[in-house]
Amino acid sequence: MSSIGTGYDLDVSEYSPEGKLFQVEYAHKAVESSGTAVGICCRDGVVLAVENIVTSKLYETNCNRRVFHIDRHIGMAASGLLPDARAVARHAREEAADYRQSHGEPMPLSELASRVSNLMHAYTMYSAVRPFGCGVLLAAFENGRPQLYGVEPSGVYYSYHGYAIGKAKQNARTEIEKLKLAELSAANGVKEAAKIIYSCHDEVKDKYFELDLSLTSAETAGRHVIVTGEQWTEASNYAKAALEEHDSDDDV
Amino acid sequence: FSSAMSASFYTKPANNGNAGVAMETSWDSNPGRQRTLQPITTGASVLAIKYNAGVIMVADTLGSYGSLAKFRSIPRVLRVNDATVAAASGDLADMQFLNTVVENHAIDEEIHEHGIAYSPASLHSWLTRVMYNRRSRINPLWNTYIVAGTEAGQPFLGYVNMLGVAFKEDCLATGFGSHLCLGLLREALDAAGGYAGLTEETATSALEACLRVLYYRDCRAYNQYQLANVPVAKPAQVSGPHFLQSDWSVAKLVKHYTE
């Protein structure tokens, strides 16, 4: 199914005769075999959600969140290799802190996205390193406008109204396209994002997963907040209920 | 991508670990530079007192340029987090520099969400180390800091000066305040039988009375101030600017005073 790059996939500094960088493509595969991450720009905020697949019940809950704070006002959701995602988060945090220190104001998301993209791209140019095996979604609510950027292992990045990466990205993207984003409030967006994660989750292959949710909106005053407690339970129940409804529909 | 390697976790002689930015002194690499000889734009006294359910701290908003009352709206009180506030007197450039470092640390802690944040005692300890180490290189940050907040459910009040002298007390004052007002604050505490006998209102009025004394008697004091209140059970609140009412009618009794 996948084209084998024998001989041209040993390091990322080598092109294949067809002009492909196989190491970058393999990095994308690392993202595609990991839990789905979803980002949705709502009317008054941005929601991030991740299907955090947990391989053992022995882990403490929420010990390995896949949603990160980058400074107070920017959130990052990651799909792919978690240690790579943490490294990207660390760089992003340094950039944001530096910017805040020298400019005296929080870093605009467009600027941060550009820096993260530069970073991830830099790791695709030298044989001494490997590309990051993760894709990241960056979110912020700036000057009343919700913003979402997605950066992939190749370093390419776009600004999105809604996006998904990871295992079920195609299904998730289809679900996002069905939403009327311009009318959706961030509070409802949290529930919809949870619903998308649950509906795209493969019960058979990955039994147990944690729902990582976060919100940056007018309500949170532009602060990136990890959704916990009541709001999380509400979203999670809404998603599970929608799933049951869907299942019971099938029974008819 | 050398920045990936630049973060240092361990303190070796060549690097300064976490205190990094605060510890950089220009002549370590460039011997032509000079050391701090004198403060330039300065802040006057900071006063603080514990009460039965927390701590209150006040500092006026004046930045003096020598004897010129140049900047009349400088905030000197820093809210670090819900349980910690700090204020400084002395050189305001040094204060603003250190405050930025502290704020960046505080943001770092917030975003890591591991539930560990600066407690007033840990901030006090960190400041002491930075101030003492700077003095040991004969390039001090020319400030006296007061750290106030809630530590393990109890009110906390700590003092650090540019020599690295640090201590904790039930009432504190810097600069002129330590000469003119510390006695008044101690009297208030003694009268109440300790800080557990002071209410928020009594503590606030004691501090206001002291600020008034300072405005009358300290040429570098001002009648506009910020107030920080850190109740043990609630988040820290920094309010201001408050205005001090003062009565200068006695000036007419002063010989040679003309209107």
TrEMBL record, chain A:
Superkingdom as given in the UniProt entry: Eukaryota
SUPFAM superfamilies on file: N-terminal nucleophile aminohydrolases (Ntn hydrolases)
InterPro entries: Ntn_hydrolases_N, Proteasome_alpha, Proteasome_alpha-type, Proteasome_asu_N, Proteasome_sua/b
Keywords tagged on the record: Cytoplasm, Nucleus, Proteasome
Purpose: The proteasome is a multicatalytic proteinase complex which is characterized by its ability to cleave peptides with Arg, Phe, Tyr, Leu, and Glu adjacent to the leaving group at neutral or slightly basic pH. The proteasome has an ATP-dependent proteolytic activity.
Assigned protein family: Belongs to the peptidase T1A family.
Name of the protein: Proteasome subunit alpha type
Organism in which the protein naturally occurs: Macrostomum lignano
Higher taxonomy: Eukaryota, Metazoa, Spiralia, Lophotrochozoa, Platyhelminthes
Automatic annotation (TrEMBL), chain B:
Chief site of localization: cytoplasm
Keywords, comma-separated and alphabetical: Cytoplasm, Nucleus, Proteasome
One of the protein's GO biological processes: proteolysis involved in protein catabolic process
An annotated GO cellular component: proteasome core complex, beta-subunit complex
The keyword Chaperone is assigned to this record: no
InterPro entries membership: Ntn_hydrolases_N, Proteasome_beta4, Proteasome_sua/b, Proteasome_suB-type
Signal peptide as annotated in the record: none
Pfam family, one: Proteasome
Protein family according to the UniProt entry: Belongs to the peptidase T1B family.
Function per UniProt: Non-catalytic component of the proteasome.
Protein's UniProt name: Proteasome subunit beta
